[in-house]
């Protein structure tokens, strides 16, 4: 089923883009679209907004963007002030929270009346934006956890990075890279990265981070493996000093230790991201450096790996222009012309027809992402966890804080695990 979602093997069923254009009598509409991302995403998104506006006279867009950390702070502030943008980019982590607070428009009527055409979208993918029987978000593309790495550096050092690395293999590579090149390892740069990898490791033990009003683990000891990996890296010297993170924007591809820095002491041979970030990471890399892609380390890759909606586009429940906003989501989903600009930067397109249509125009790195999704992740993965609960953001902040304390050796992994279990359960129960 999953392979059918993303494999680019269907015949092209259309020769013209499906813009879903508005009628000639469309009302004047000035709409705000808000997203997070890198420079590549910013430029491509603005271009397709301009294209849609050109095809639909009277419609204009105020495109706004932020980095991954500032985005959620700004969106929360805008939401609290009753000025949430018309169309927003949304993460699987937060969609349930925003829907529960009546901030998102139910897209179901626009799907049912054909305003948003999902005839070439798998029900499995469509359902990722469904909460309590209503669809609140339309997936932008498919991605998965992915370890980006400095392939040029490792090739020169004679170090091979296999897919499906175990934790022991990963630690051995970290040690070997540090010994041979001086480059260190970065396991986290905040902004939910720590939480995502903790959750990934828990999946390998058949556990979920979140249960019903509490953690979905057996006890604090289930968290120790994650914190122990950080401690090993710091005590053995192969993890970057946490002070490196202080003046950098969390989750910023351009400032990640993999591509940013002037010496091996402050740089990393790898970075934990999602697969759709490979193109942006390659663009941010110094000239002559090739970025490779593989799986996050785990002792059970099939249990840990999953296919994930890269992000959603959602419509504000308070927008004055719900019909036009729905037409924009249809354009992003079904227009071949639009997707020949986006080129899968947010993930493999969810429309099988669009995915097939743009395949020949993908760059080498964009094709590499498709191959990674199809040939590495799809055959060796399991179902994604349910969306995070409404108060997950507080848990994420707690995990980031404990991660920092372990890296600074202020607390032990056992202490961090116990504190997370006690304080996190209290948050989730509140």
Give a topology summary:
Layout: H1 2-6, E1 29-36, H2 39-55, E2 59-66, H3 68-80, E3 87-90, H4 95-100, H5 108-112, H6 123-126, E4 130-131, E5 134-135, E6 138-139, E7 142-143, E8 145-150, H7 151-156, H8 167-181, H9 193-203, E9 208-210, E10 215-216, H10 224-236, E11 270-274, H11 278-284, E12 291-294, H12 301-304, E13 308-309, E14 312-315, H13 322-334, H14 336-342, H15 352-358, H16 364-377, H17 392-407, H18 413-429
Parallel strand pairs: 1-2, 1-3
Antiparallel strand pairs: 3-14, 4-5, 6-14, 7-13, 8-11, 8-12, 9-10
Question: Which terms would index this structure?
Answer:
430 residues, alpha+beta, five-stranded mixed sheet, 18 helices, globular, disordered N terminus
Report on this structure.
The protein has 430 residues and is of the alpha+beta class. The protein is built from 18 helices and 14 strands. The strands form five sheets. The protein has a five-stranded mixed β-sheet. The protein has a three-stranded antiparallel β-sheet with strand order 11-8-12. It has a two-stranded antiparallel ribbon with strand order 4-5. Strand 4 and strand 5 form a beta hairpin. The protein is globular, with a radius of gyration of 21 Å. The two termini are 38 Å apart.
């Amino acid at each position: 089923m999953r392979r059918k979602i993303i494999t680019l093997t269907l015949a092209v069923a259309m020769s013209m883009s499906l813009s879903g254009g508005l009628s000639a009598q469309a009302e004047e509409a000035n709409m705000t679209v808000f997203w997070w991302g890198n420079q590549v995403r910013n430029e491509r998104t603005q271009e397709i907004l301009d294209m849609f506006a050109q095809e639909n006279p009277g419609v204009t867009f105020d495109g706004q963007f932020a980095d991954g950390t500032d985005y959620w702070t700004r969106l929360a502030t805008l939401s609290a002030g009753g000025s949430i943008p018309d169309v927003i980019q949304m993460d699987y982590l937060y969609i349930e929270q925003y829907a529960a607070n009546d901030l998102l428009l139910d897209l179901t009527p626009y799907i049912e009346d054909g305003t948003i055409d999902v005839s070439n979208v798998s029900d499995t993918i469509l359902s990722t934006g469904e909460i309590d029987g209503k669809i609140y978000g339309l997936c932008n593309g498919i991605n998965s956890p992915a370890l980006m790495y400095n392939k040029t550096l490792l090739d020169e050092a004679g170090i091979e990075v296999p897919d499906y690395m175990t934790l022991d293999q990963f630690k051995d590579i970290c040690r070997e890279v540090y010994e041979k090149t001086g480059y260190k390892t970065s396991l986290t740069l905040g902004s939910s990265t720590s939480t995502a990898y903790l959750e990934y490791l828990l999946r390998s033990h058949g556990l979920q981070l979140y249960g019903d009003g509490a953690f979905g683990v057996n006890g604090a000891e289930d968290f120790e493996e994650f914190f122990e990996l950080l401690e090993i890296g710091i005590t053995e010297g192969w993890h970057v000093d946490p002070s490196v993170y202080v003046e950098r924007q969390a989750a910023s591809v351009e400032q990640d230790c993999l591509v940013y820095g002037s010496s091996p002491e402050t740089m990393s041979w790898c970075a934990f991201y999602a697969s759709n970030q490979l193109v942006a990471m390659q663009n941010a890399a110094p000239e002559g450096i090739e970025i490779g892609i593989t799986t996050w380390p785990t002792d059970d890759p099939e249990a840990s790996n999953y296919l994930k909606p890269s992000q959603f586009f959602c419509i504000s429940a308070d927008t004055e222009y719900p019909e036009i906003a729905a037409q924009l989501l249809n354009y992003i989903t079904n227009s071949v012309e639009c997707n020949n600009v986006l080129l899968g930067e947010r993930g493999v397109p969810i429309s099988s027809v669009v995915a097939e249509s743009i395949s020949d125009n993908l760059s080498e790195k964009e094709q590499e992402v498709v191959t990674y999704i199809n040939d590495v992740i799809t055959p060796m993965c399991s179902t994604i966890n349910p969306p995070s609960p409404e108060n997950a953001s507080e848990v994420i902040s707690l995990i980031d804080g404990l991660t920092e304390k372990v890296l600074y050796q202020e607390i032990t992994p056992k202490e961090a695990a116990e504190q997370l279990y006690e304080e996190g359960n209290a948050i989730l129960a509140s």
